[in-house]
Amino acid sequence: MKYVLYALCLVLVSYNFCKGENKTNLPKDNIKSQTKSVITSAGPNGITRNILQDKQGNIWIASWEGIFKYDGKSFTNITGKVSSSHFFSVLEDRKGNLWFGSVGSGVFLYDGKSLPPGQAGFKNFTTKDGLAGNEVTCIYEDIAGNIWFATEGGVSRYDGKSFRNYTTKEGLPGNDINAIIEDKTGKFWFGTRGYACVYDGKTFTVFTHNGKPFTNVRSIIKDKKGNIWLGGYDGLWRYDGSTFTNFTPNFVGYIYEDKKGNIWTSSERDNSQAWALSGFNATPLSNQAWVLSRYDEKSLSDKNPTVTEITSKPIIFGISEDDKGSIWFGSFDGVYRYDGNTIRKL
Prior knowledge:
By secondary structure, this protein is mainly beta. Helix content is 5%, strand content 46%. It is built from one helix and 34 strands. It has one helix at residues 2-19, and strands at residues 31-32, 38-40, 48-53, 59-63, 66-70, 75-77, 87-92, 98-102, 107-110, 121-125, 136-141, 147-151, 154-158, 163-166, 177-182, 188-192, 197-199, 204-206, 208-209, 212-213, 217-222, 228-232, 235-239, 244-248, 252-257, 263-268, 275-278, 281-284, 290-295, 307-313, 316-321, 327-331, 334-338, 343-345. The strands form nine sheets. A five-stranded antiparallel beta sheet has the order 1-10-9-8-7, with no helix packed on it. The radius of gyration is 19 Å and the shape is globular.
């Protein structure tokens, strides 16, 4: 019963965050925070959507309270004095720049060099600069170095100078984008709130299995072998270029492959329940918890692969691995780290 009440509250909170976002208007050149970033002993305590480790070993956390950097000792809210936006996505590009996707204020480019106690250099891009939408749910760098942004208004590709946008006018099956990946052949895969599709540089084709499209795909990854994994309303699927394999029918929010080739997912236990969809959030109206699961790499070809349920929470978001092999994941109340034995909230 407590999960029912919490889920209902989370729907309302998510709706307010997505629809009533306070937008921050910033100059279109590099901007400097007027005060030092906030350093704390703990990470965010609110909704945490995505996590990554940069080339220097720092952990970056996209949360509703801002972008946090963890150096192994303390947390720094990098955006705390720059923007009041809630953040959804984070990417480090090949040049070492960091990109932060927000809910309502577009995307922020951070040079990653002017760290506290200095002042941080940022650049903000919004629809006024050509971005397709100001709600940026996913950021991806392709093999050519272009940066792609998944927004509620379509897909944007940034070549370092300007944006090129793709929407339903160009053939996308929906403008509300969840996921982007480039496969081993150079084609791009997009997960939308409608259907998943593949783009060959000229044409968008809805991706189907036995004539049925994949609906509301929330996560797409390419594994080390080049297989494509899709997670969403239709469950967890793997496509090797010719064969489809379904691993669970339950709703899957995030997919991650660790260094050993294990597949991690955040999923809901029972796919038969009703869902409340608000903005780009999906919250189960039930007392069923979400589950963080690990699919063992050595058994992925088996008819019944080995699946280990690591933990459960009312909802689980982004998943990432650090250089020590620990798994990080976000939830409704902050960020957690699993070292293989214990789970700790940071």
